[in-house]
Amino acid sequence: MPFLGQDWRSPGWSWIKTEDGWKRFEFFSHDIQDNSDIDLEELQVENKENLFSAEDCKIEAKKRKKDHFNNNTKSQFFFQEKWIYVQKESTRERHGYCTLGEAFNRLDFSSAIQDVRRFNYVVKLLQLIAKSQLTSLSGAAQKNYFNILEKIVRKVLDDQQNPRLIKDLLQDLGSTLCILIREVGKSVLVGNINIWICRLETILNWQQQLNNLQIPKQVNNGVTLSDLPLHMQNNILYKFSDGWDIVNLGQVTSTLHMLSEDRQLWKKLCHYHFAEKQLCRHLVLSEKGHVDWKLMYFTLQKYFPKKEQYGDTLQFCRHCSILFWKDSGHPCTANDPGNCFMSVSPQQFIDLFKF
Q: What whole-number distance in Å separates Cα of residue 265 and Cα of residue 235?
């Protein structure tokens, strides 16, 4: 059988666009022979916009496709929908399975960080991925990961909110990258080593910017926290779920410092985050023989994870096996969709893709 290449018009020939369609360009055609005054070089220059070889067309198409992909990567952060079907094995209807990187690309984390209810959730998820799952991401997912991280850092630098969370995230990510770069060849590291070194330098630069962050003092002539009655200030402190936030707030005024040292406040915080068995194993007594609940809280958090609390989380439909943001919903086929939904913590999100 004769061999037919990708281009049946014999790749390598030159083609010219005419009113009747594309025709093969022949340098020594009858028209050129009849009119000897026409210079061949002038004819080529005149038709250079419409003159293409098969190989040039192929290269140009690849270049346009690559540029289009890079533009989408930078501007859209890879996300397409706000839900994704979590598939762990191949079936007759669906082939393949869903990976952590695919879910991270398609779920709208870029817009989620703009929502104050979801900001802590996304930061915690990025932190868990940095600790253990960074090498499991594909090259596109890694690029998306650092694009979202850059957007988070810029947001914190602009509005001066939650800098401590981002400092912890960058610290864990920087430590992981140092280990991966030192052990290159022993561990799976997608991408060129120079790219990872550049990313590590970027992280160090972000850490320096956050350390130099100066939060300006706001001048407000209205009612401030210090103007509230003592019982209202005390009620506000009891709403905090993080011990460091209580400590930092206690450094504002002497009154808040006195309220932040309340033993009952720290006792309630310990009982909120830790189980009774954990409290009994690590009792911390003061010099007077009383339980030092504040010191006990910071001791326990070194050994046990704290209770996580988020304003909004991803939802998982047990009936459809679909992961989605609550406000976006998903095409559920259950008779009572509300009973099929369950909140997914950042750790549960990662566990969904451990096969």
A: 10
| Residue found under tokens 């098969």 | 54
For residue 169, what are the contacts with CB-CB under 8 A and spacing of at least 6? Answer: 123, 126, 127, 130, 149
Is 127 in contact with 163 (CB distance < 8 Å)?
Answer: no
Neighbours of 196 (CB within 10 A): 17
C-alpha span between 99 and 353 (Å, rounded):
6
Q: Which residue has the tokens 């509005």?
A: 159
What's the half-sphere exposure (Cβ side, CA atoms, 13 Å) at 64?
6
Q: For 138-153, write each residue's pLDDT tens digit.
A: 888 888 899 999 999 9
Distance of CA 176 to the CA centre of its chain: 16
Tokens of 100: 């952590």
What pLDDT shows up at residue 67?
56
Sign (positive/negative) of CA torsion 85, 86, 91, 95? positive
The reply to whether the predicted model has a pTM over 0.90 is no
Q: What are phi and psi of 341, to 5 degrees?
A: -90, 145
What are the phi and psi torsion angles at 230 (to 5°)?
-60, -40
Per-residue pLDDT tens digits for 96-131: 567 888 888 888 888 888 888 889 999 999 999 998
Coil/strand/helix, residue 102: helix
Report percent pLDDT > 90 for the chain. 18
